[in-house]
Design a protein that fits this description.
The complex is a heterodimer of chains A (198) and B (472). Chain A is an alpha/beta fold and 198 residues long. Chain A has a single domain, classed as Alpha-Beta Barrel (Aconitase, domain 4), CATH 3.20.19. Chain A is built from 7 helices and 7 strands; from the N terminus they run E-H-E-H-E-H-E-H-E-E-E-H-H-H. A 7-stranded mixed sheet of chain A has the order 4-3-2-1-5-6-7. Chain A starts with 5 loop residues before the first strand and ends in a 13-residue tail after the last helix. With 472 residues, chain B is of the alpha/beta class. Chain B has 2 domains: 155 residues, Aconitase, domain 3; 179 residues, 2-Layer Sandwich (Aconitase, domain 3), CATH 3.30.499.10. Chain B contains 17 helices and 19 strands. In chain B, helix 13 packs parallel to helix 16. Classes of the chains: A alpha/beta (198), B alpha/beta (472). At the A-B interface, helix 3, helix 6 and helix 7 of A face helix 2, helix 3, helix 5, helix 10 and helix 11 of B.
Chain lengths: 198, 472
Amino acid sequence: METFTVHTGRAAPLRRSNVDTDQIIPAVYLKRVTRTGFADGLFAAWRDDPDFVLNRNAHADSTILVAGTEFGTGSSREHAVWALQDYGFRAVIAPRFGDIFRGNALKGGLLPVELDQADVEWLWDALDADPTLEITVDLVRRRVSAGERDWGFALDDHSRWRLMEGLDDIDLTLRDESQITAFETERPQWLPRTLQGR
Amino acid sequence: MPTTTPATMAEKVWRSHTVRMRDGEPDLLYIDLHLVHEVTSPQAFDGLRNAGRKVRRPDLTIATEDHNTPTDNLLTISDPVSRTQIEALRRNCEEFGVRLHPLGDAEQGVVHVVGPQLGLTQPGMTVVCGDSHTSTHGAFGALAFGIGTSEVEHVLATQTLPQQRPKTMAVTVDGVLPEGVSAKDLILAVIAEAGTGGGRGHIVEYRGSAIRALSMEARMTVCNMSIEWGAKAGMIAPDDTTFAYLKGRPHAPEGAEWDEAVAYWRSLATDPGAEFDAEIRIDASTLAPFVTWGTNPGQGVPLSSAVPDPAGFTDPAARSAAERALEYMALSPGTPMRDVSVDVVFLGSCTNGRIEDLRAAAEVMRGRRVSPGVRMLVVPGSARVRAEAESEGLHEVFTQAGAEWRFAGCSMCLGMNPDQLSPGARAASTSNRNFEGRQGRGGRTHLVSPQVAAATAVVGRLAAPADLAAAA
């Protein structure tokens, strides 16, 4: 996983709430068996609208997405995270995220940043006024800054550490493999097994 | 650990699966059952291969083909990209020793229909799947939730998942559901009340006399849609209804083990005096057939009311979402929901593709015809549900009415396989999501119960069975 410490870049204001993962990437784009190649499907239904934010020149090379509340609700498809990353996004700022999307993003190194609705609206207005405005997302200090403004955001220490170090969860877990094995010996015998007759 | 402190069911299941608890880290949970399908697993198996890892517990893993399969035949997947994905699952299951129920198998079907009907989903278990509707299995008092592909790989490799402990919420539904009001109406009403983010960060326990009175299949419908209001999981305490459903299923315990299991299952219910972090109370007697008008599952109203006016929403985000939803749905404020005509009716999915759903719809359609110009797809949730329906003659009720009787799969729920809405087409659908383009690009979805789906197919406009009786 790519590490994340501090990122500065241009941002795209997506003035919509409830952008579910079907909007981020429709199911018809989920047929690939690879982890890359999903950029074409990103916001597919909106991409042929010339007014869509990513089709405006000033926002085309954005690396930060500033979206409305309940971003990434719905389907568990991690392809939504991959599509955003394939397009070039490193962070998404929104008032609230769908739980599964947020977890997938943290696993993959796409930083989900929660700011208050009013701060997100301030960013939208500022980006409309000046599309070249750069936003800095500082995971080390857990702060977002843009122009004269600066906000703190919450992220648990463990997730922050994993992102900063680019650590693989499976490796971390396997450090405790002896505990997993010990747990398995205590499981009741009647629990179902898929490979047995019953 | 002190056992005298009253605990919720969610806390009991969580604790009993905690492999590792360490300050400043998520708990490491053991996973009892991992369900796998073709769409969210190929990259996870690739990850195992690249790291030289095995599936730790193939005996706690089961795969089926559902999302990307056709429902008009069992032999040919005409789209080469879809076929490649299905073939990847078959190769991966073969290589890693995972049991697979492929297209054409007697146990193939939608992953959340297959697990329960095999008796693999049992109370007190942890169940995960790379699919958000894994919450379905909570109907048995299991802790069940959807995960992403990185987590699928993690479970395949370690049979565990690091998880932050969620909060708990009670949704207490007391009273008696009125005649003609189903579990689907109940959960759509809950979501409209709570909003799409209302359950976020919580494991929800549905309780109260109206929940106790539901069948297992109706409970699955309720828990299935927990994710649609953002909940981590939905659970219902196991009781005699649960045990009666499980008894004799292929993977249910037998003999002395059955007795041991039931004793344990009975201990799972939330203790008297246990506290939830939040609670919602609903009076079942106030509920009515419910339909959605917008593009998220929280945008619903009783069938007897009208399309709402966005101007009436006080929250600016909700107002602009409503305005955009009405534009997408091509609906005007004030239009009675019963005046909305549909092109397609879809009966099926992990929400409402079980035998009771098909029976309820067939009862409405018996001796009636699908309205001219309406296409109705009836898609059993699994091959076993299809066979059971055929043994009861339900398929004849549907086909004589002019509906299509199809093979099992996710079908028109998600706009991935060949069953899709065409742009601008409007559907009444028993599935779980009315997102823009969910059932096919440009398609418009109204979420409904099986009973409302059947009546709507007959009338050609959104309707309840009572409307048919009145007309007859």
